[in-house]
Amino acid sequence: MKRSTAEIRQIFLDFFCSKGHQILDSSSLIPQNDKTLLFTNAGMNQFKELFIKKNKYYTKVATAQRCIRAGGKHNDLENVGYTTRHHTFFEMLGNFSFGDYFKKEAIGYAWELLTNKKWFNIPPDRLWITVYETDYESYNIWLNEIGICPERLIRIGDNGGSLYNSDNFWQMGNTGPCGPCSEIFYDHGKHLSGNPPGGTEINGNRYVEIWNIVFIQFDRQIDGSMVKLPICSVDTGMGLERIAAVLQNVHSNYDIDLFTSLMQYIANIMKISDLNQNSLRVIADHIRSCSFLIADGVVPANEGRGYVLRRIIRRAIRHGNKLGIKEPFFWKLVKPLIEVMDIAGKILQIKKTHIENILKIEEEIFNITLNKGLILLDKKLKKIEGNVVNGKIIFLLYDTFGLPIELIKEICHEKGLEIDDVEFKSELQKQRHRSRTLSNFPQKINNANIYLIPPSIFKGYDKYIIRSVVKAIFVNTKQVEQIENNTEAIVILEETPFYSESGGQIGDTGILKGINTKFIVTDTQKYGQVIGHIGKLICGNLCVGNIIEASIDQTRRNRISANHSATHLLHAALRQVLGKHVSQKGSLVSDKYLRFDFFHAKAVELNLIHEIENIVNDQIRNNLAIKTDLMTINEAKKIGAIAIFIDKYEKYVRVLQIGDFSTELCGGTHVNYTGNIGLFQIIAESSVAAGIRRIEAVTGEQALCQIRLTNKDLYEICQLIKVDKSKLKNKIQSLVNYVALLERKVKNIENQQIMQETKLLLSKAISFKHIKLIVNLFKNIELNILRRILMNLKNQIQSGVIVLAVILDKKTHLLVAVSKNLTDNINACELVKMLAHQINGTGGGCSTIAEAKSDVIHALPEVLATIEGWVKSRL
How would you summarize the oligomeric state and partners of this protein (predicted)? Predict the structure, then answer.
């Protein structure tokens, strides 16, 4: 009996549950505490640290992890819909061992699940295995204990002879945890083309990798040498969609039940019967990635994760457009997606309305943008000379208006035009840097040794000064034993009162003191489970093992704590005033101000801002007690705690309660009573992206300073315009009206000047061979007015050449216009460059309009005198 995708997912989890694994939920698509990744792209992402050191909570787990591959290093976007296996969103089934079992058990589990009749029941002779060439242990397990046929057991060596550079040797990075892997392939049958794994020729669709088992046993050093890890781990990954294709006896992932159901729904909307269309596959894939990304807090934007989401949405809408849909449709697919995703779609059901609203807004915006882009494209193409379209124009339409390159090429092809692909790709390469901004986030420590240091113990919730021991020092990513005076470094302590940047709260600053030693801490960051004190030694030497006194800047910390507690009050007040849909999208808590980003569809009106301020200040005056407790996540949920970010492998969470007003999960520092905040004032409310608003606020002394600054500005404005404060608004309105009147008068004067100058120049035009030539040097005229005169003349002369010049701010400006009927012989761009060359200037433009400028002003009359002869020579 054919199993559904939902059943396959559950069978996998049930199998590993029966083997003693803890079954954990999928983590967010937004990696937590890992700035090296744009999106979660593998099951192991949330467990990175557990591969390196033992933990007391988990030794073996299994997950069905939601993954995205549509930005940064792992980007399948352009292939999606055109191959049988590429997706922007997929689920990675994985089992993991952190120092528990290793190769024998991992291989045995995989084989049992795949081939046993109780589980997947795949014929063993359809499975091929690859191992790393020198991983003899895995090879022998497959050959002797599993009994795989030697012809289907393939050793894979290093690519190009470069040691450990192999498809069967996995590495987290240039340094750090790594190890050999064993891949399992499924043979879909002779009716498909393709070669067995390990060959040099490109494989077709016959042999498909379905499972990768990685054995993490080495720590790669900077010099390339391999050191055995103290604990060995297992990391496996099997794409749910790929194994579903195998078990449902289809060779394309898009033919599994999950996708066919979605595509049938899309086809019904579009009233089409042929499901075998690339555009249907694109839309079905993209609704999954877009819905889950929005559910996890991403919104369309012009950079980073939001930029990737926006491109996926627009690609889907364009493919709907290709299928004939002109009205918003994409948001309507959220409901059927929830149905086909079964239990994995639980988060979508919770946030269904929010997802639909974001998609609908973005779709409406893009439809307007798409129409504008198509109009602009049509205008640009009408001006094209020759049959090649400038690559920069194409990129403008692609990047600013979101027109898919396929659409632009298609329209150009219809008009017999080609695009400058080289120039377009050059511009595209520059733009791609934006979407990788987050994935290229710099790390201050890139050394696997950091993970071997015992976890730092944070004492800073109730202590500002403690004595501690220096456990490690890093300089320029290298671990050292000591540092000399005037050296910048990162110092790791056994215990510390310094709070490391986390949850939006900035890191502490302060001093590390020893005997004749002083290290100034300018920032504090967390690296795995250790806290790094970033700064500079300004006195003496500092060695590993030294006992020092660590003290934070208490005044700065107090201001940060006040702002953090105020952020929680603000969050609760927003939910009270605007609705329970409000949830945190991001925050910044510094010593100077706080910034809070949240989900809300429209701007917060001024009267609501005042209401929110009043509620927060009421709670400050109530002087509510702020307390924290450690409890399990289930206990926290029972008391209604709002969770923003949770690491999946943490057993206990820290719950912050502010009286009965606010209950949230939070690891930051706070004041003891709300009265310590003093005063709260919102200083800005703005839009971050579609559906995301931002509030900035200040507290305490900063709020008082803000009020005084506002009053000072008002006083100075009143003094400047000589009016009493009570009459200020009416006076400003009167001035605004007067300025508008003056601007209208100035515009009328400019229009009269342009008409007069145009009429005068037309009367002075030189005529020969049925054309008119106008050449004039102006004095004291603005450049924008000169351009308007040029266009007026061009529009009134059916056949002619116009050259206008002016000297402004010791620079020569030349403007040239040529009637379109003359451009075969006289080119405006060529003429302006000829003139500019004579005065060491630069210029450019097109065949009908061009400009140039130069620092040379004395030779201008002589240069203008050469124009008539040049024009006549071209006729």
Answer: Homotetramer.
